[in-house]
Design goal:
- By secondary structure, this protein is an alpha+beta fold.
- About 30% of the residues lie in helices and about 30% in strands.
- The protein is built from four helices and eight strands.
- It has helices at about 20-30, 75-90, 115-120, 120-125; strands at about 5-15, 35-40, 40-45, 55, 60, 60-70, 100-110, 110.
- Strands 1, 2, 3, 6, 7 and 8 form a six-stranded antiparallel β-sheet that branches.
Length: about 130
Amino acid sequence: MVQKQHHVIISLASNSNQEAHLEAARAQLTQLLTEVHFTSAIYTDPVGNGPCSMFNGQCSKYLNQLCQGTTGLGMNLLNEVLKEIEKRLGRTHNEDGIVTVDLDILEYDNERFHHRDWERNYVKDLINEL
C-alpha cells in the first residue's frame, strides 16, 4: 500500500549559535522529509517586546530559513517530531530569550498555519525561493 505524501513548508529559526543550530536542524529535516529544498538563510531582528538572547548588550538577531518537502506523517505526528528535534538540539521554553532552534509548520497540504508568520518580511521574501 502506497502511503499518501503530504506537502509541507517548515520555518526554521535560531538566535543562539545560529549557523550551527540551523545546520543541525537541516540535517534532521533531510532525514525526516523527502524531496527537501531549503531557501537561503537571512538574519532578522527579534519581533515583539519579549525577552531576547543578549550578545554584546544587544538582542541577538534570528537566522531564519524555510524548508519545503514531503512526508508520510500526519500533521499532528509531524509537529510532535519537530518539537522532539527542537528538544534534541537544546531547545527549552524558559524565559531567557534563547531560541536554539524553532521549527514551525507553516503549511501542510496547502493549509496555512502560523498566520502572523506569513506576514513577516522574511517569509514573504524566502517563499519565492521554494
